[in-house]
Amino acid sequence: MKRSQILFVLVGILLTFLLYRLPMVVVDNEEQPLAQDGNDLGSDFSAEGDSHNSSLGEEDLKVIENLMAEMEGEPDNENFVIFADSIAKVYEAGGKIDSAAYFYSLIAEKVPELANWEKAGNAYYEAFSFSMDDSKTRRMAEKTRQYLGRVLDTQPDRLDLKTKVAMTYVSSQNPMQGITMLREILEEDPVNEEALFNMGILSMQSGQYKRAVERFEQLVANHPDNIQGQFYLGVSLFESNQKKRAREQLLSLKEKTDDPQILSGIDNYLDRL
C-alpha cells in the first residue's frame, strides 16, 4: 500500500502522509465485546498509543476509567450511548482518534442509526488518514467502509462519503476500485471538490503533473477558497516545467494565506524557480 514519498520531502509539509501512503498507479489515462479491564477493547482501541500526537493526562485517564465503569453492563441504551460518547470525546480531544472511533462504533452497534454509522465511519476515516502503520491502516479502512457503506446503502447520493470510501480503496491492494469510484463521482458531479482534489493528488503521486494541473485548475476555478488546491496547482505547474505560470500562481497564493506551512512551501519552490 505505502510506496514512497515523492513530494515535499525537503519541506516536510502539507499532506505528506497522503502522498506517502498512496500506491504508484496511473490514474488518468483515459462486533467485539467490551472487556472488563479496558486493555482488550478490540483492535481499534488504543490505551497508550495512537496515530496522532496524543496528550491524555492522568485526569483524562481517570475520567475515562470512571466512565467505562459506568458504561460496562449498562442495560439502558440511552445511558450507554451517553457514557460511550463521553469517552470518545475525551479520546478525541487528546488526539487518540482510533480509540474515539472504537467507542463511536460501540454506539453505532448499540443504536444502529444513520447518524451513528456516519459518525463512526468518519472517525475511522480520520484515523485511517493519519495511520502510518500498514496493518492498522487496513483495519481503519475496513471499518470506514463498514460504517460509511451502511449510510451509502440508504443514501447513495452522499458523494462526500463515497469519496472517503474511494480513498480507502486507493490505499489498498485494489487501488483501481477507488479510482473508478472517484471517476464515477466526477461523472455525476464534474466539479466535486473532494474528488477533484484527490484525483489531482493521485496524478501528482504517479508523476502525471500535466494531468494534475488540469485537475487543480478545474478545482480552483470552481472552489477558489481551496488553498491546498491553489498550492498544489503551483507545485504541479512547477513539476510540469511551466515555471512562469508556477511563479505567478505561487506569488498570487502568497497574498491569500497566512498559513506558515503553506508559506514555507511557497518560499521553497520560489527559491527553486
Automatic annotation (TrEMBL):
Repeat region (TPR), residues: 193-226
InterPro entries named in the record: TPR-like_helical_dom_sf, TPR_rpt, TPR_Slam
Organism: Cyclobacterium lianum
Record's protein name: Tetratricopeptide repeat-containing protein
Domain of life: Bacteria
Keywords assigned: TPR repeat
Family matches, as Pfam families: TPR_Slam
Domain Surface lipoprotein assembly modifier N-terminal TPR repeats region, chain residue ranges per copy: 166-250
Acyltransferase as UniProt keyword: no
